[in-house]
Design goal:
Radius of gyration: 21 Å
Number of strands: 15
Number of helices: 8
Helix content: 10-25%
Oligomer: single chain
Strand order of the largest sheet: 4-5-8-9-11-10-12
CATH superfamily: Alkaline phosphatase D (PhoD)
CATH class: Alpha Beta
Order of helices and strands: HEHEHHEHHEEEEHEHEEEEEEE
Distance between the termini: 43 Å
Largest sheet: 7 strands, mixed
CATH architecture: 4-Layer Sandwich
Length: about 325
């Protein structure tokens, strides 16, 4: 046996290589994105599949329906399922995620949408949620997914920022769409979802806890849709994250047709809170000319893109990447946890 080991070592030395380790032994790869028109070409499905992610997360606006006609909504979702690249990804990678306004059924819509219950069932059908799932009976599409590997655990918390969300207040400023609502009785998540989220965070033993919010959380100054339109709800979630002591909490978002990294230091938290916005897949904010975001890290990417996170359990580090076509890295951020 010793002779065999010696000879094997000599062969490796002569070949100038060493036995290859599994590169994913200590990594968990997440890919996600939003703002996808099923009738428009999406150049990324083959690139995403090539990344060999452990999960694909829809960040909302899976399709653009904007309708209260439930059969029309169902037909538009069905069209997405006929896209070959997406079908290939779906066959190889677990698909999870949430909705946003355009697949919910109404632009910038919230709790006032008349057919939200019916729309929820169509969304759950598209996502392949079993008919006997508890999600079929609850209000809202929120849920959690747990992933356990030999090296560590990942929890993905899927939020619903539509079903319960209070109405927005129009801004008189012509350069801004909405202004902050400071009332005490407004909500983004609704009472039941808030209670569920607090329980999930407080009892999580995951090494990384990813919160999928369809709308941006940290970037709240631009006047479009954002958690920033409800400042007290922003404070509530920040306090909940800090108090939970959950490890590796990261927020993912979409909606804006731009991609960017935002980072904020929260008192009482050992690591900064990052909000990674990835949007959009088939169309983007090409006319973008700048907007305020005091928490922005790097530059805004206004071309079409998707996002990836490589969660490194061994080194307790995350590599965030904004990705373009053909594997081009448009921007990158690394953070220790």
């Amino acid at each position: 046996m010793k002779l065999f080991s010696f000879l094997l070592g000599m062969v490796v030395l002569l070949l100038g290589c060493k036995p290859k380790e599994n590169p994913k032994d200590s990594n968990f790869v997440v890919a996600f994105g939003s703002c996808n028109m099923s009738q428009e070409p999406n150049p990324f499905w083959d690139d995403i599949l090539a990344e060999n992610p452990d999960v694909w997360i829809w960040g909302g606006d899976i399709v653009y329906a904007d309708t209260d006609d439930i059969e029309r909504l169902r037909a538009i979702y069905a069209q997405q399922d006929t896209v070959q690249g997406y079908a290939d990804l779906k066959a190889a990678v677990p698909i999870i995620g949430t909705w946003d306004d355009h697949d919910f059924g109404v632009n910038d819509g919230g709790s006032e949408f008349a057919v939200k219950k019916e729309s929820q069932q169509v969304f759950l059908d598209f996502m392949g949620v079993p008919k006997d799932s508890e999600r079929r009976n609850q209000e809202g599409v929120y849920t959690s997914h747990d992933y356990e590997t030999p090296e560590g655990k990942v929890k993905v918390l899927i939020l619903d920022t539509r079903y319960f969300r209070s109405e927005l207040i129009d801004d008189e400023d012509p350069d801004r769409r909405y202004k902050p609502n400071l009332a005490d009785d407004v909500t983004v998540l609704g009472e039941a979802q808030w209670k569920w989220l607090q329980n999930e965070l407080n009892h999580s033993d995951a090494d990384f806890n990813l919160i999928m919010s369809s709308i941006q959380f940290l970037s709240g100054e631009h006047g479009f849709e954002t958690w920033g339109n409800f400042p007290k709800e922003v404070e509530k979630l920040e306090n909940m994250i800090v108090d939970s002591k959950a490890k590796g909490v990261i927020i993912l978002s979409g909606d804006r047709h731009i991609s960017e990294f935002s980072k904020k230091t929260l008192s009482g938290m050992a690591y900064p809170l990052i909000d990674f916005t990835s949007s959009g897949l088939t169309h983007s904010y090409f006319s973008y000319s700048g907007e305020p975001n005091q928490y922005r890290v790097g530059e805004v990417v206004s071309s079409k893109s998707y996002g990836t996170l490589t969660l490194d359990f061994k080194n307790k580090e995350v590599n965030f990447r904004i990705m373009g076509d053909n594997g081009v890295v448009l921007q990158e951020l690394k953070q220790a946890y």
